[in-house]
Amino acid sequence: MKIMERNKSTFFYMLYLGKENVTDTEGYETGEKLVRYSEAVEMRANVSPATGQSSVEQFGNLESYDKVIVTDDLSCPIDENSVLFIDKEPAYDDDGNPLYDYTVKRVAKSLNSISIAVSKVKVS
Question: Domains plus CATH for the chain?
Fold first, then answer.
């Protein structure tokens, strides 16, 4: 299945890199962990309008998602740990942490396309 270029929207994604130990000013670990993501990467795909219906066939019994992204790029690296900037440009707080607006709920791969269920979040 090919997706028409005129139906594609631009958004950004960041891949999960792992957690990093936080250290204090003297170099001692505080016991806290900081989540690290890759740099924001631009992508174009079909992004559905906001929805509230469940999709039993495509994602199993998943009801809590807001949009579905469909891409014909089978090498798309987005997974359940990725974060997205769909309704806004990539933004960061004073400490360099991303202020994303969507998280990935589920990824469904088929023979010719990948469907990604995403949910809106508020990060501050």
Answer: 5-120 (2.40.10)
- Cα separation, 7 vs 26, in Å, equals 53
The pLDDT, as a whole number, for residue 69 is: 94
Overall average pLDDT of the 5-16 stretch:
94
Mean pLDDT, all residues of the chain: 88
Please choose, from the candidates 24, 28, 20, 43, the residue with its C-alpha nearest in 3D space to the C-alpha of residue 96: 20
Strands (E), the chain: 9-14, 16-23, 29-37, 41-47, 67-71, 83-85, 102-109, 114-120
Q: Are strands 41-47 and 29-37 parallel, antiparallel or unpaired?
A: unpaired
DSSP, collapsed to helix, strand or coil, labels residue 56 as helix
Q: What is the DSSP letter of 58?
A: H
